[in-house]
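anyone else get weird line breaks when pasting these?? whatever heres mine. first is seq + tokens for prot A
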Amino acid sequence: MLLATSATSCGSSATTDANEAGSDGGIGDGSSAGARPNDVKPAAPGPADIGVTFANSSPYSVPKGTTIVSVPLLLQNAGPGTAQGVKVSLSLPSELAHVAISGLPSGASADYDRVSGAVTFAGLPALWKALQSYQLTVQYLTPTAGAVNLRAAISTTSEQGSNQLPDKASLAVGELSYDAPIVITKGGTYSGNWKSTSATTAAVTIATTEPVVIDGANIVSSGGAINAPSGDYRLSVRNVNASAFYTNSEGIGKGYFLNAGNFTEVLVEHCWLENFGGGVRVLDFGDGLSKIGQKLTVRYVEMRNIDGRKSDGVDGYDTSLENSGANAVGLNTLSQAIVEIAWNEMLNEAGKSRTEDAISTYQSGGVAGTPIRIHDNFLLGSYPPDPAVAVGFTGCMIQMGDNPGMTDMGFTEAYDNQVVAIDNCGISISSGHDMHIYNNRVISGPTSPEGVPLNGLYRSGVSIWNYYHHPNWMEPATADPFWYNNDVHDNVVNVLDGNQKPSGNMLVDYDATTTKDNTNPSGHPATVADMLDEYNRWLVKRAMSPEPLGPIK
């Protein structure tokens, strides 16, 4: 598998501290009287910058001594120069059981000493090229008592310059206790740990139109994490760890992380969520249909296995397409909205997730000068509920427009996103005006990154098609006064179809001015290695994001 998709530990807190930069390595004044041009050495590419980081762990209140915990550990060289003499150390408590380190490069191994707690690495490369990274997963069985403290460090004999990445990291994994579901009836700032075991009850319900801030919380729920269904309100959700669990009730799915309707402003940032039936869903309905100018911001959020499947009642899932589907971020009938969806990471596993359109702007649009902006997101895994049965699966990673009402919707842009592993569609414009797809990367190989075959016969990396004004939707097709000024350009697209052949893009309503330079510069069909490389590319980019992803509090 590509990387650790969930960390089923209980509450955690992580700290990192960067080493001081190395010496300035005096280089003299550079003078060389009488030197010939051929004697001048080329400038070095720059210093290395190695770092080590524990990802945030998910907040399950786990039974002691019975649960395997998974903790992601990221090792990387984010500098432009090569790091030499690289060494990695890892320390765990002694006497842990079922310790395993996965994600190691070929030929490397890790050995845990139960007496000292030290992990000894062998075969790790001593030379790390610029932008090289490894995503490891540390697993162990929860002990019968006490917290688990993990410590890691990385070093190099090379100069690190300003050394912006932390060379040491620690993580304390403890046990959480949870309160019953809460109903918030007045404005203010709230933090805490809440759990709901009911499929029909959210862990947190907003029942006020006064401004509410949830900042610093751990949530476990089967009926949704936060529900704010009605009212003209402002809601901020920050620094929340949230996990959903299976209810085993036939026809019932897991709830959304956040379900918000008729709002004025919603902000979601620095959160971790996993296994929910959907991520962030915002909509206008009922008396709010005429509402315009709503503001939504979703950024710095880590999502794992967005899963719209419903229970079959016998310890499994209904895998039919018509009974499943979810969005990581879903907009529904927002008019002239101010929206930014940026710097989020969604990692889905085949057979453990199900999205329809991962990011959807269903019958929603922005305004001239302030478009809906979807940028700098990493989205991996757009799969049907059963990858072996993909006929009829229509999910896209980013769907712009999608306006069966055929109303005046437009002004949406998707740019600088990375889309990996699709079983139908990467990024699409299906209706509207002033829609733009540019500077994205869509990479999809013959299987999922874990090696699960994908059987959707047709796939498209990027798409521009006025779907709702074609004969497949209505007979006869009608002219669309709201279809104009749309383009798809300067995207890197390398996608295989279900026959393991390079797949073309779906370009139906276009001309030479609207689609250009959507190319595959690699010169070869996408492989699993290409998808893994794309994730490594993202890890380096993510390290340079304006703010860290996931909870920071």
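and prot B, same format (seq, then tokens)
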Amino acid sequence: MSALVKVRDGSGQPSRPHRRQAGTGTLLTLPRPGREAASRLHVLTCGSVDDGKSTLIGRMLWDAGALHADQRQALAKWPQTPAGTPDFSRLLDGLAAEREQGITIDVAWRYFDTQGRRLVIIDSPGHEQYTRNMATGASHADVAILLVDARSGVKEQTRRHAAILDLMGVGRVVLAVNKMDLVDWSQSRFRDIERDFLALAARLRFHDAAAIPLSAVLGDNVALPSAAMPWYCGPVLLAHLQQIPASRLPSAGAFRFPVQMVLRDGQDFRGLAGTVTSGEIAAGDEVADAVSGCVARVRRIVTMDGDLERAQAGQAVVLQLDRDIDVSRGAVLATPDAPARVVRSLDARLVWLSDAPFAPERGYLLRTATDLVPVSAAAISAHVDLERLEEKPADACAANDVALARIDLGRGTALDLFSEHRETGSFMLIDPITGASVAGGVVTAARTPDVAPQAGTFRLTRELLARGIGADLHDGRGSEEELRRRADEVAILMRGAGIAVEIEERWHGTDRDLTTIWLTLCAILSFGLIAAIVLGIL
């Protein structure tokens, strides 16, 4: 028996795992909620509607002793399932509409501890209408439990969810073949489904795929081995999750720090606030802004609890640099030896989330971790065939389609390849009129700012903006930041009106060049004055 959990009935003897009733008198050796675990694992449950995702999570919470007394009492008062067990799905369906319809609509998060590990369970909806919610949950997952009904096997929605998992970089997947009790615990039925799943996984980029037969309602192979399926010799679900390593190591990867805002105390303090998305940084290290190329050294790492010597991925901090560099919200700081890419054009894989189909003439915005960039042009090149998982040429895109696209931006922004950095290699496409998210995607290829603009593109230059909407601004760093902000707003409005627009690339360079020329002239004039004085004395 797995050391993960022991369940005994009132007589002190082990209970039959596949026919036991969920009642009182259960003794669990798992740690109680609230104890900090040594590591975290983000687990997504997904699959087609009615495959039993909420029931499976509820059973996991019950068997792990992760429920409070009032939750157990409330569960005992609700109507039981036809199998005579509590309706565990009610523990997850928090919305009134979910309880009325019997389906999951929104993403639900649940936390519970096992020995040495904290599991963060992300319950996603299975209905095709709420695919966008499933994609949101997948963006946070280390591993996915992909459920199928043993009676129906792998369906189109199962394949769609598998393709989205691949798109979002979830490399570890567990196929939970649920409701085995409804197919008389058939080994041949399980093997057929397992064969289909492994063929599906081989065509995607999953590097760890396994199939487990179980019954979420009765608890078979969830926390304890099933006596009804002696032919299965693999680990039960909770034991399998226990041994999976976390995908994201805190210090793994090159340093990335998207700047969320600039903080000032009204005197000499100027700090850059944000969250370290990958890698780590220490006081005294050099950082560089991807777009301008300016380099500075970290003087302090400031938090609400005091200064830190080092910050790593996942920590929200304020970086104070040893000199002011011209960066604001949307900039991405990196180390000079591993800089982020400045991208003007990119290839992407995306899942279309909007009910309104893709319209190439409509203006879209691209939202990165902290930046919002006008899209000057976008085109769909192919769809992913969910049946064969092959790319087929296409130029249109509708709700729930997984597609390949090329996107040209109105100005350069810092992006990475998704295969190298998940947080700075993913994006959302935004409708500029409604502000709704229309698609989520990942960067598969990136091109530099040397991309020629398309014919008919309107170019916003600094000189044009300074004479118009920036005429009331005066010289200074704050004025430059405000002028850039206004430039973005103008570009967003023009793109919303269907006008292709780009913003002058050499914005930062113009300021530096003028400053350098002015200082050089001052030096020449100063040297000439000193020379004249010296010559006069002589």
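btw re prot B: Residues 1-38, 94-105, 508-527, 529-538 have pLDDT under 50 and may be disordered. The chain is about 25% helix and 30% strand.
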